[in-house]
Amino acid sequence: MTQRKLIAVRIDPNLCVGSGMCVSSYPDKFAFQPDGHARYISPELDEAAAREAEEMCPVSAISLVFDEGEQQ
Ligand code: SF4
Description:
The chain is of the alpha+beta class. It has a single domain (about 5-65), classed as Alpha-Beta Plaits (2-Layer Sandwich). It is built from two helices and four strands. The chain has helices spanning about 20-25, 45-55; strands spanning about 5-10, 30, 40, 60-65. A hairpin with a 5-residue loop joins strand 2 (about 30) and strand 3 (about 40). The radius of gyration is 12 Å and the shape is globular. The site of iron/sulfur cluster has 15 residues, from helix 1.
């Protein structure tokens, strides 16, 4: 079994509707930008938090990027 490493947490600004679910659940990891879209702001990539935010986002705007180039 290969060990995948999380290398980025992406938020598609074209999909994000600014619901704030990710920001209110993980205020140290996600924050609103001046354009009203959320962004992952923590220098530490927390896979558990990112995965939970990905699951709760109502428009599936959050995606996790792993070092093998696969988005899940
Ligand atoms: S939960 Fe999704 S739609 Fe809501 S602010 Fe976060 S990324 Fe945007």
